[in-house]
């Protein structure tokens, strides 16, 4: 027994067991179970009908597109805000410590609270509308609007601190010497930022993009409460199907959403791998 | 001769004491012989058994009914000294929980469940509903509406799934903006009003609120005739059959046409409360609503005092919610007592006045309502005359087909 434990392969397996075992039991197990469930009828016979429904029913197809839209759009908006915010946080200014603590608050607010906040504040005839009405002003339609602007803004409000936190860490990880070297070689502040700092921070930025995308695409409360009644994203349609007791359909929709998340993850790995290669080439 | 007389007397005696409904029960945890319980001996048998149990767990699926059940529980605990463990639940999830528990053969986590009237087909097909002829053995159900006593929306339940609350979908409007002369009386007039007042009518998305589900079925009832209407009202259809028909049938073209026109000039909302909220914000002047939910909103000052209700000609869907005992309930006797009190005249009258909750009792009428409450209820010239029975599986099917045929095109 002791001899076996001294075997490096056994030691490696034992060391990996907690992490890999956890993943197998709590991620792989449910995933395989959902996959099997999505391919079965009530009498346990094989079927692809639940996937066929997703790709042939107009409601489902629009749901899939809407899920991707609600995943991608907040990422772009959050990125535009988070990168400058991350740079600002690096600077020294009055009240920085307070700001540094306050900007993270939305992360602690659950999605459903954010959705209800939007309903109370930004609904037509809501709080903000009543405040600005005496000045002859009114808010544009942000709740149940066709383009889901309210959903995107609510998601952005919730995701910006998270994205900023990761991007700030990514920029903080770049040695000051590199920036100084670029500046001393004649690069402007902007060039240094665009051609030196951003590429070096790219692994952190892409990680933030990936996590924000997955979080936004799978969110339920915000699109359900703030979004238009139609189209509804797959996450909202999944709850509807669950309530109807159509579990096989829920599994199939979950598998499709997971597939997209995995595809994005693979794209992330491909992108970050290329960044690594160019950095290595640059080092050479 | 004497023997014959004795036999007849014994037969007559057994006929008066034996339960009217003698089908075998599927209740798993019984400490007393429920087949011997009748309306006459109910309290003699059930009260001691319930006191021995000492506690009863109740689920409530209707968020707006919390205060009503609090009132019932206070009365129940004071009268019987039996503790009520109360939980608000999300109906769909609680249903799935009970179905899973039933499949596993485990004890149910609830003894008396206030569930949606439309949930009966799902729950009964999964064997969740305890086969107890409540409408036959509960003393307080002796004045129960015979039309609802044995079946619900066309599905026989043998008295095991009795409605204890009736509700009505309706058209709600703010009378400050809608004058009596402009009030639509038919579905065509409603469309004309919406065209004249763009984006001032709110229509709840059927899959997100019962007032929308009721409305789409009411529209179909209004426009379908002949064989199409026969299928529309065929309660023997399963949910799957109803969905297949709604997705494929050309019968429903008038309904889709109506919705295409209506949604071009009306606001589609995310739920019953969403519609009412927009009316309260004065963004909408009229919308699809539930009568009892309106009363809750009025009492909470979430709707203006000028809010009023009406029904459209040819009828709008009326429904209700039921109390039942799950087959695997642990405290059956206490659950029986609780349901008996819930359908009692005192509590039903309180519920009518405070919650605009109509009663399936035949001895309770709108006359008992105070004038202050009555003005927020449906007027006597439209209710119950224009109340049409619900068929929720068909309503859901129409809602799904609406998504596919109109909203996603």
Please describe the topology of this protein:
The complex is a heterodimer of chains A (284) and B (409).
Chain A: H1 2-6, H2 8-38, H3 49-56, H4 58-90, H5 96-102, H6 111-122, H7 127-132, H8 149-172, H9 176-184, H10 189-217, H11 221-226, H12 234-243, H13 247-283
Helix pairs in contact in A: 2-13, 3-4, 3-13, 4-8, 4-10, 6-8, 8-10, 9-10, 10-13, 12-13
Chain B: H1 2-17, H2 42-53, E1 55-60, H3 66-80, E2 83-88, H4 91-104, E3 112-116, H5 120-125, H6 134-137, H7 146-149, E4 151-152, E5 155-156, E6 163-174, H8 187-196, E7 201-204, H9 210-223, H10 226-232, H11 239-248, H12 253-265, E8 267-269, H13 272-280, E9 286-290, H14 291-299, E10 307-310, E11 316-324, H15 332-342, H16 345-355, H17 371-374, E12 387-389, H18 392-407
Parallel strand pairs in B: 1-2, 1-3, 7-8, 7-9, 11-12
Antiparallel strand pairs in B: 3-11, 4-5, 6-9, 6-10, 6-11
Helix pairs in contact in B: 2-15, 9-18, 11-18
How would you describe this protein?
The complex is a heterodimer of chains A (284) and B (409). Chain A is mainly α. Chain A has one domain (57-283): MetI-like (MetI-like fold, Orthogonal Bundle), CATH 1.10.3720. Helices cover 76% and strands 0% of the residues of chain A. Chain A contains 13 helices and no strands. Chain A has helices at 2-6, 8-38, 49-56, 58-90, 96-102, 111-122, 127-132, 149-172, 176-184, 189-217, 221-226, 234-243, 247-283. In chain A, helix 10 (189-217) packs antiparallel against helix 13. The longest helix of chain A has 37 residues, at 247-283. Chain B is of the alpha/beta class and 409 residues long. Chain B has helices at 2-17, 42-53, 66-80, 91-104, 120-125, 134-137, 146-149, 187-196, 210-223, 226-232, 239-248, 253-265, 272-280, 291-299, 332-342, 345-355, 371-374, 392-407, and strands at 55-60, 83-88, 112-116, 151-152, 155-156, 163-174, 201-204, 267-269, 286-290, 307-310, 316-324, 387-389. In chain B, strands 1, 2, 3, 6, 7, 8, 9, 10, 11 and 12 form a ten-stranded mixed β-sheet that branches. Chain B is globular and about 65 Å long. At the A-B interface, helix 4 and helix 12 of A face helix 4, strand 8, helix 13 and helix 18 of B.
């Amino acid at each position: 027994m002791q001899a076996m434990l001294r075997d490096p392969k056994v030691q490696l397996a034992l060391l990996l067991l907690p992490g890999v075992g956890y993943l197998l039991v709590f991620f792989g197990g449910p995933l395989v179970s959902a996959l099997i469930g999505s391919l079965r009828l009530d009498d346990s016979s094989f079927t692809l009908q639940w996937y066929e429904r997703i790709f042939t029913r107009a409601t489902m197809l629009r749901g899939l597109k809407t899920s991707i839209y609600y995943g991608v759009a907040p990422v772009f908006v959050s990125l535009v805000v988070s990168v400058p915010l991350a740079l600002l946080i690096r600077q020294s200014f009055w009240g920085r410590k307070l700001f540094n603590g306050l900007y993270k608050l939305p992360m602690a607010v659950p999605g459903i609270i954010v959705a209800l906040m939007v309903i109370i504040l930004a609904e037509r005839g809501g709080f903000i509308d009543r405040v600005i009405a005496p000045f002859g002003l009114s808010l544009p339609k942000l709740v149940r609007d066709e383009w889901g602007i309210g959903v995107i803004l609510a998601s952005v409000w919730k995701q910006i601190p998270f994205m900023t936190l990761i991007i700030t860490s990514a920029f903080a990880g770049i040695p000051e010497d590199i920036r100084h070297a670029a500046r001393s070689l004649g690069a402007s502040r902007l060039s240094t930022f665009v051609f030196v700092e951003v590429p070096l921070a790219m692994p952190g930025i892409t990680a933030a993009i990936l996590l924000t995308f997955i979080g936004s695409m799978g969110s339920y409360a915000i699109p359900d409460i703030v979004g238009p009644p139609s189209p509804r994203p797959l996450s909202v349609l999944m709850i509807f199907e669950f309530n109807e007791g159509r579990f096989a359909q829920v599994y199939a929709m979950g598998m499709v959403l997971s597939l997209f998340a995995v595809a994005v993850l693979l794209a992330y790995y491909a992108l970050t791998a290329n960044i690594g290669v160019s950095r290595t080439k640059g080092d050479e | 001769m004497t023997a014959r007389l004795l036999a007849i007397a014994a037969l007559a005696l057994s006929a008066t004491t034996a339960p009217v409904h003698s089908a075998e029960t599927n209740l798993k945890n019984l400490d007393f012989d429920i087949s011997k319980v009748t309306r006459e001996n109910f309290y003699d048998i059930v009260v001691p058994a319930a006191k021995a149990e000492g506690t009863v767990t109740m689920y409530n699926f209707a968020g707006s009914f919390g205060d009503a059940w609090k009132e019932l529980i206070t009365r129940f605990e004071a009268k019987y000294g039996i503790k009520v463990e109360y939980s608000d639940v999300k109906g769909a999830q609680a249903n799935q929980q009970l179905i899973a528990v039933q499949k596993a053969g485990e004890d149910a986590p609830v003894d008396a469940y206030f569930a949606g009237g439309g949930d009966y087909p799902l729950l009964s097909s999964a064997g969740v509903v305890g086969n107890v002829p409540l409408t036959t053995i509960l003393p307080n159900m002796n004045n129960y509406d015979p039309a609802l006593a044995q079946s619900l929306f066309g599905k026989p339940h043998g008295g095991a799934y009795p409605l204890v609350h009736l509700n009505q979908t309706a058209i709600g409007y703010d009378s400050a903006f809608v004058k009596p002369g402009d009030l639509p009386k038919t579905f065509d007039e409603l469309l004309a009003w919406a065209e004249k007042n763009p984006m001032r009518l709110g229509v709840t998305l059927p899959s997100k609120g019962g007032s929308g589900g009721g409305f789409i079925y009411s529209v179909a009832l209004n426009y379908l005739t002949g064989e199409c209407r026969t299928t529309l009202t065929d309660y023997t259809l399963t949910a799957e059959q109803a969905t297949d028909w709604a997705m494929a049938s050309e019968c429903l073209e008038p309904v889709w046409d109506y919705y295409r026109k209506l949604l071009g000039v009306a606001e589609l909302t995310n739920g019953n409360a969403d519609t009412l909220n927009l009316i309260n914000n004065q963004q909408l002047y009229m919308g699809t609503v539930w009568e009892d939910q309106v009363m809750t909103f009025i009492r909470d000052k979430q709707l203006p005092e000028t809010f009023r209700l009406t029904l459209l000609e040819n009828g709008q869907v009326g429904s209700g919610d039921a109390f039942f005992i799950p087959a695997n309930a642990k405290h059956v006797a206490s659950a029986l007592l609780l349901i008996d009190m819930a359908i009692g005249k005192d509590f039903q009258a309180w519920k009518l006045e405070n919650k605009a909750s109509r009663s399936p009792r035949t001895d309770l009428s709108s006359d008992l309502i105070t004038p202050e409450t009555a003005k927020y209820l449906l007027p006597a010239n439209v209710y119950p005359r224009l109340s049409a029975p619900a068929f929720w599986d068909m309503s859901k099917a129409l809602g799904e087909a609406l998504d596919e045929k109109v909203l996603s095109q």
